[in-house]
Amino acid sequence: MATILVTGANGQLANELKVLSSRFTQYQFLFTTKEELPIENTDALTSFFQKNKIDYCINCAAYTAVDKAESEKEKAFLINAQAVGNLANICSLYQTRLIHISTDYVYDGRVHDPLKEESPVGPINIYGASKLKGEELALQKNPSSLIIRTSWVYSSFGNNFVKTMMRLFKEKSEISVINDQFGSPTYAADLAAVIMKFIEETEQGKSFSGIVNYSNSGVTSWYDFAQEIKSLVNSNCKINPIPTSAYLTPAKRPLYSVLETSKIREMLQISIPDWKESVRKCCAILNSQ
């Protein structure tokens, strides 16, 4: 029985993997929080890998406070870069397959064509820079690592745009949402299913490494994303479209971060759900809670 370690167990993606794990009884899952397994601590990692035979490590642990990272650069780089290098190194030593989750923020958002894995990178904030360094260290320390870049992640778990909008629609009669940043929302449950597909195919003898992009199909703005959520929860809240320039944040955001996903579709022979279809599923779960 292969053992799958999932770090960052309290996060959106790890929680979706927990939900999925009941369907994959052929594997043993180990879910660890940052308190149980701080990946920046090499001694803790070594001890854990010595005690447990890990076949796959899905690294969902990350520093994700994009604006806060601007004033906590060292912490962001410790968790998103140095710790990833530690993890890749230990996975290499123990013949563990590393699947690491990265972000669309490694791109600068200036090009208005879907971004391929080999498109030029150029992060415009500390968070993106730390995640890019993590990718580089993962592949340097363990060339067999698989890195999945994703974008605009949401889930029925954790804090995210969908849940924030649903809360604001209840609290306010009018809100403003940015309409000039474009991307593809990603339902963490869909991403979790794709990760498990990679593991299943690897178990059957296939080999995957390097960088792949994954997001749901289709393109939207934050404003139109909000409008879709509003329609799904039958809210009367008025949404005002505003430009990025009207909503200043410590960290700059890419204006365009649509990921090109043909590589992962061909690799796994999958079709990717449209973002509207997936947000409908998520909102149905949240509405029932």
Write a structural description.
The strands form 4 sheets. Strands 2-1-3-4-5-10 form a 6-stranded parallel sheet, with helices on both faces. The chain has a two-stranded parallel ribbon with strand order 6-9. It contains 9 helices and 12 strands. It is 40% helix and 17% strand. The protein has a domain at 2-156 and 186-215 and 258-273: 3-Layer(aba) Sandwich (Rossmann fold), CATH 3.40.50.
Number of helices: 9
**Structural class of the helix and strand makeup?**
alpha/beta
- Helices and strands, in order, run as EHEHEHEHEEHEEEHEEHEHH
* Unreliable sequence segments: none
- The overall average pLDDT, rounded, is 97
> Overall 3D geometry?
globular
* Spatial gap, N to C terminus: 35 Å
**CATH class annotation of the domain at 2-156 and 186-215 and 258-273:** Alpha Beta
Write the layout of secondary structure elements.
Elements: E1 2-7, H1 12-21, E2 27-32, H2 42-51, E3 56-59, H3 73-93, E4 97-103, H4 126-141, E5 146-150, E6 153-154, H5 161-171, E7 174-178, E8 182-183, E9 186-187, H6 188-203, E10 210-213, E11 220-221, H7 222-232, E12 238-242, H8 262-268, H9 275-288
